[in-house]
Amino acid sequence: MVGTVIIQNGTLVCPEGLRHGDVALEGDKVARIAVHLEPAEGDEVYDVAGCWVFPGFIDAHTHMQCWTGMDWTADSFETGTRAAACGGTTTIVDYATADRGVTMPDALAEWHRRADGTCTANYAFHMALAEWNERNRADLARMREEGVCSFKTYFAYDHLRLNDAETLEVLGALRPLGATLCVHCENGTVVDALQRRVFDAGITGPEGHPLSRPAECEAEAISRLLYLAHLAGDARVNVVHLSTKMGLDAIRAAKARGQKNIFVETCPQYLLLDDTRYLERGEDGFAGAKYVMSPPLRKPSDREALREALERGEIDTIATDHCSFNLHGQKDRGKGDFRKIPNGGAGVEHRPALIATSFAGRLGPEDLCRLMSENPAKVFGMWPAKGRLAEGADADVCVWDPSVAWTISAATQHQNVDHTPYEGFECRGRARLTFVNGVLAARDGEPTGTKPGRYVSR
């Protein structure tokens, strides 16, 4: 019989605040929290003095083992969730996608085939819709029964996007189900036209990518989404990967007119990097392709506006939009035409360290918990089982050592990709222990080889 896991002498990040004490994990639940717990014979004891003890981090925006219209992502569910756990993330929410001609039940079954039995971290699924019809309308309730309480539509990408009338109908259909619609907010019609214009002007390298997807394309689409949500009776919407001040201003305007059910996500890349990265050449002259993702990296002024908004509490969650492609053999297919570079970047392993380091002295452990654990659990239907360190909650725990200094490098990462957008970033703090469902999944940033991850019905 497996004994209790006792985590001793940590600073516990609990819903009621910080406290010093011990945590006992029994099976897949947090059994007890107290100032001191006396171990019994056979218990596993971990002394974590000097560490913060978080509920496991949740990354609510990933694309693992996914065909994006150009290529398969480099990370499978196996490699991606292993990397996530090494960084302290115990649950991902991945975007299953019902492509045109595919039903949502069939898409969900396919994503289960890809993920089930392979994962180190837990996994849940959003359901992305590439078309709107009566079959999909009828299947929404079935998806809710299968534990899917969030959906996604697109305003960009010709093979995925819905028009405004269809988006309004989706919002109306989801509202009585209490479900949330996540939306990729870029004006795809304008992007298509600007891509042609920029390319025809002779700008063919990665620097053409941000020029063809300006801030206005995001802000207009966010504003349009929020007006549609208002028309649908203040339907629940989640603006994914916010990247611009103009988009932030559109959200502020909607909230000022009384809309309550708006949730906002941003990503580390938009808080740390900017569009000068597209000018990087590297040894092969194509290093800027590492940063081709949509939306693109923005101006330093956008980055600073988002950082300020994050500190003021205007942004609810930090996710990664992890969608990894190798620079060599995938992204380099777009040499000579930036439109052919697969869009996406890697980040699921490094998000907690990037945010903890970049916002040191400005965001404390309670803020990190709120942005990367508590709020994702609440917005996406996993609270109170996940997102809180409390008796009876799931035994997903990240023990974080804020004293460890280390450097991000593609050579030592566990993401299955040949580069990282954060190469050379000097971090302060790392996950010392990551427990998934009560099982030690990673230690000091290295996997233990266990695969305790399981599907999270929300």
Describe this structure in words.
This protein has 12 helices and 17 strands. The chain is an alpha/beta fold and 458 residues long. Strands 1, 2, 3, 4, 5, 14, 15, 16 and 17 form a 9-stranded mixed beta sheet that branches. Strands 6-7-8-9-10-11-12-13 form an 8-stranded parallel beta sheet. α4 crosses α7 and α7 packs parallel to α8. The radius of gyration is 21 Å and the shape is globular. The mean pLDDT is 97.
Q: What's the gyration radius in Å?
A: 21 Å
Which regions have little confidence, pLDDT < 50, spanning 5+ residues? none
Question: Which of globular, elongated, flat, extended, rod-shaped describes the shape?
Answer: globular
Helix content: 25-40%
Q: Largest sheet, if any?
A: 9 strands, mixed
Average pLDDT across residues? 97
Structural class, please? alpha/beta
> Secondary-structure element order, as H and E?
EEEEEEHEHEHEHEHHHEHEHHEHHEEEE
Distance between the termini: 30 Å
What are the salient characteristics of this protein?
8-stranded parallel sheet; single chain; alpha/beta; 9-stranded mixed sheet; 458 residues
